[in-house]
Design goal:
The protein is globular and about 50 Å long. 33% of the residues lie in helices and 20% in strands. It contains nine helices and 16 strands. The protein is of the alpha/beta class and 319 residues long. α1 links the parallel β3 and β4. Bound molecules: flavin mononucleotide (FMN). Flavin mononucleotide (FMN) binds next to β4, β6 and α8.
């Protein structure tokens, strides 16, 4: 057995941190966000070894895809700017990696998919479903992939609802989460549309932007794609606002994502209404240990306030 073949211990076994997303039991609310480490069973295993309560694989499409040339990720003082371009090995290969992950680790695993048309989302969902992920997350919000009509799918409520229905059908018994963009106009209403179309959960948010960083010496944009999506600490207030708006419109669980590297960040998302908390850039900023350190901080918060479980304070900021 490899040193990575471990069950999540990030909550230190603190049962007060256990949560459920669409019937899936997570030992703690931290979730490795899509696109960070999640290309293979082994790389996702690092997050498990360091306490993640669930892992999300990188988004995959129908065919393998190369993505944008380097530099595709640039760090700056307050986060990251990226235009990876959805590089991935294709849905067939991803299904194999997910199946392998399931055979090695006990922590829930989420697939993430994208498509170029509404129907293609269904085709990709059916393929990754073969790897038996615990949940399929639908990336309708990538700033680098546009619909045939020239806008990201996730900005159009009609297309988002159609994708939700198609993926739900293809996923059969596997729960489906729709991942929304902070650029969506009326994100709460859009989440409600997804719920009405059958979504089992909402993930919010994807990256913010696009933004640009210019190298003053080179006098040109740093990213090869010139523009990219912003993530990390800078976007936490946007994520908190989005989760707050979504929570006021839906009853399905929310995986709040964006800018989390410490327990107090995760708590803001939970107080806004998130059931679980995605961590992406925080892995780069704080290392894999970010999952266990966030969990320790959450346990300390429960101790300090004499609370039985994290669930007690979910959505408390709405009062
Ligand atoms: C390098 C990088 C790659 C990403 N790739 C994906 C992806 O493939 N699919 C997806 O849904 N989100 C992707 N994201 C977005 C993250 O999953 C997350 O929603 C976003 O970065 C906000 O969370 P964070 O501030 O914790 O990073 C990516 C983010 C980064 C930084």
């Amino acid at each position: 057995m490899s040193t990575l073949d471990v069950t999540s211990t990030g909550s230190g076994g603190d049962p007060r941190l256990a949560v459920r997303i669409a019937g899936i039991a997570l030992p703690n609310p931290t979730v490795l966000a899509s696109g960070i480490l999640g290309m293979s069973a082994s790389s996702c295993g690092f997050a498990v070894a360091h306490g993640a309560g669930a892992v999300t694989f990188k988004s995959c499409g129908l065919e393998p895809r190369g993505g944008h040339p380097c530099p595709a990720v640039v760090p700056y003082e307050h986060g990251l700017l990226n235009a990876i371009g959805l590089s991935n090995p294709g849905a067939e290969r991803m299904a194999e990696e997910i199946a392998q992950f399931r055979s090695r680790f006990e922590v829930p695993v989420f697939a993430s998919i994208f498509g170029r048309t509404v129907d293609e989302f269904g085709t990709v969902a059916a393929i990754v479903a073969g790897g038996r992920p615990d949940l399929i997350e639908v990336n309708v919000s990538c700033p680098n992939v546009e619909s045939e009509f020239g806008t990201p799918f996730g900005l159009d409520p009609g297309l988002t609802a159609a994708i939700t229905r198609v993926v739900k059908k293809a996923a059969k018994d596997i729960p489906v989460a729709i991942k929304l963009s902070p650029q969506a106009h009326g994100i709460g209403r859009l989440a409600r549309t997804c719920q009405d179309a059958g979504a089992d959960a909402i993930t919010a948010i994807n990256t913010v932007g696009p933004g640009m960083i210019i190298d003053p010496e080179l006098r040109r944009p740093v990213l090869s794609n010139r523009v990219g999506g912003l993530s990390g600490g800078a976007i936490l207030p946007v994520a908190v606002r989005c989760v707050y708006e979504i929570a006021s419109q839906v009853t399905i669980p929310i995986i709040g994502t964006g800018g989390v590297s410490r327990a107090e960040h995760a708590l803001q998302l939970v107080l806004a209404g998130a059931t679980a908390v995605g961590i992406g850039s925080g892995v780069r900023e704080g290392g894999d240990a970010v999952f266990s350190s966030v969990c320790r901080g959450l346990s300390a918060y429960l101790d300090r306030h004499g609370l039985d479980c994290l669930e007690t304070v979910r959505g408390a900021a709405h009062a």
